[in-house]
């Protein structure tokens, strides 16, 4: 597991309705979107999930809903967050402890 500023890289538990949960590698990141006026997050899962499918991702820091948006030629799935990110984000949580 690797922690990036306002992101997460490592294994997540992926839940899709009607399927058993599974652990998959993921890279997730958050940023402030000035047009939306809030923090948005997205990422890539090393798993094949059909686009427009709602998923639930769990990291060691928390759980959040996301939507699968597209698949690449290698079978990875891009996701866009719906809930608060399932990892610490300085803008939301304050400065990280030193």
Description:
It is a single chain. This protein is mainly beta. It has one domain: Thrombin, subunit H (Beta Barrel). Helix content is 4%, strand content 55%. The chain contains 1 helix and 7 strands, in the order E-E-E-E-E-E-E-H. The chain has one helix spanning 90-93, and strands at 2-4, 7-16, 22-33, 38-45, 54-59, 62-71, 77-81. Strands 2-3-4-7-6-5 form a 6-stranded antiparallel β-barrel. Strand 5 (54-59) and strand 6 form a beta hairpin. It is globular, with a radius of gyration of 13 Å. The model has no long low-confidence stretch (mean pLDDT 90).
Task: Please describe the structure with a list of short key phrases separated by commas or semicolons.
single chain; 98 residues; mainly beta; Thrombin, subunit H; 1 helix; 7 strands
- Estimated helix fraction: under 10%
In CATH, what is the class? Mainly Beta
Radius of gyration: 13 Å
Number of strands: 7
Total of domains: 1
Dominant shape: globular
Q: The CATH topology, please?
A: Thrombin, subunit H
Structural class: mainly beta
How much of the polypeptide forms β-strand, as a percent range? over 45%
Low-confidence stretches: none
Largest sheet data: 6 strands, antiparallel, barrel
Overall pLDDT score = 90
Cα(first) to Cα(last) distance is 19 Å
Oligomeric assembly? single chain
Order of helices and strands: EEEEEEEH
CATH architecture, please?
Answer: Beta Barrel
Number of helices: 1
Query: Strands across the major sheet, in which order?
Result: 2-3-4-7-6-5
